[in-house]
């Protein structure tokens, strides 16, 4: 034995030496040149970088332009000392960008702190090259009032000022900024009215005002802003009506006036705005009907009147709008029916009409509009059946019809809705069975048929819904067993089956539901025992099975669920005690009948012989069984010796009895029996040495 040990040691030493030598050759012959080349390239890059870093571009401007522009930038530097702008070469300052077209001030980041500066007198502003002042985003924290003196910037094209500490009023003087194209003021403390004088901004294309304290009316004078394309006045307490005069805005495309106090009706005169694509007056006090005349707004694509007092019907005439895409009319007083004519809208994608007074049927004609992706019609008075024709809505992503008067059965033909991910029919009069044909709807993520008249069994075919995340079927007439095939739902997180007629056992196969977090099958007719196999569920946090006919012991192994937080198991027929392993989990809340916590629970409510084979209930911490080795089907306890069936008493490393095909050597290790009875040692050390030797040989050949 000593001689054999020496041979093993010698082989190990030689293998290690060869590996070290091979590694050195590899480093020298292959790794080295690459590293050296990378170092050279890095030096070259650093040299190139240093040649361009901090370079000046003030040569773009004349001496007079440079000095005039410098005077303005020095005013910013004085008002915002954190910028650290010093010297005369402003093109080298951080946050200043120079180009032939002008200078952009965009410090951004935490350095943009301080006040908004007044601009100096005695400067020829025709020579000031400031093109843009960008003080939004990047963590800028500016304060002070909006300076009227900025109206001196004769070349400025963009002014953006954002910050909760900016105050004062919107300067009337800015109306003289004839070159300004973009103006954005987002400041909760800015007050005053929207200046009518701003109508003189002849070049303005985008105007955004989110001033939390601004008031007054929308200026009718702004109708003369001939270049204005986008107008956003949102989140302000401006009031008054929508100016009919704005119908002459020749270039306007987007009008967003949401979250304001404007009232009155939607002007029919705006039908002249043939270039408008978006009108948003959501969450305002606008009332009255949707103008039929708007059918002539040939570019109109998006309209939002959500959360307003708009009433009346959906104009059938709007069906001729060639580009209409989104309509948000939810939480309004709209009534009447869904116009079949809207099926002519070739690009109709999203219709949101929940929480309205709409009634009547779902138009079968809409089934021909395969562009529809979102339909939200919940909490309405819609009635009738689910149209078979809607099976052609193959782009439909979300269909929300909950809490309506809809009835009839679930069309099996809807299986062709291959894009649908959300189907909500909760609280309707829908009846019949769950169509097995829906199994191939592999995009379906959420199904809510709760509180309906649906009956029959749970289709095993639904186990093919590979994308399902939530299945809400509580409060229905469903019956029969829980399908074992649903164990193949890989992503399901919430499964609600409570208050049904479901019966039978809990499938042990559901232990493979790796994503399941919440299971509620309470108040049903389930029977049988709690499967110990469910302890393998890695994501489950809550299991509610109260109010069933479940029996048997409470499985101690359920404490092994790593994220379990709630077990609701009262009103069943369990035996025995709450396992000590459950009470040891501090974050676990367990609701069981009081008898399972009584002092005599182990004797008075002792589990019978018929249930003891499926699970073990104890008041002590349960021991974890050890899996048998591959060489034997019998338990080996804590024995760690390789190929050993039974270890010597008091030792986990010394074997007493080897597995079949192995011979006990030196009184404690097992060797495979070879030809002529010669033992071949299979210890981990020898195997490692052999592997290292082979690896070393391969390495030498490759070098």
Task: Offer a few descriptive terms.
703 residues; disordered N terminus; disordered C terminus; Leucine-rich repeat, LRR (right-handed beta-alpha superhelix); 22-stranded mixed sheet; alpha/beta; leucine-rich repeat; 6 helices; extended
Report on the structure:
With 703 residues, this protein is of the alpha/beta class. 14% of the residues lie in helices and 25% in strands. The protein contains 6 helices and 44 strands. The strands form 5 sheets. It has a 22-stranded mixed beta sheet, covered by helices on one side. A 14-stranded parallel beta sheet has the order 12-14-16-18-20-22-24-26-28-30-32-34-36-38, with no helix packed on it. Strand 43 (669-673) and strand 44 (679-681) form a beta hairpin.
Give the overall average pLDDT: 84
Counting DSSP H or I runs of 4 or more residues, the number of helices is: 6
Global morphology: extended
Largest sheet: 22 strands, mixed
Roughly how much helix do the residues carry, as a percent range?
10-25%
Query: Tally of extended strands?
Result: 44
- Gap between N and C termini, in Å? 37 Å
Structural class: alpha/beta
Protein name: Surface antigen protein
InterPro entries: LRR_dom_sf (IPR032675)
Membrane topology: Single-pass membrane protein
Subcellular location: Membrane
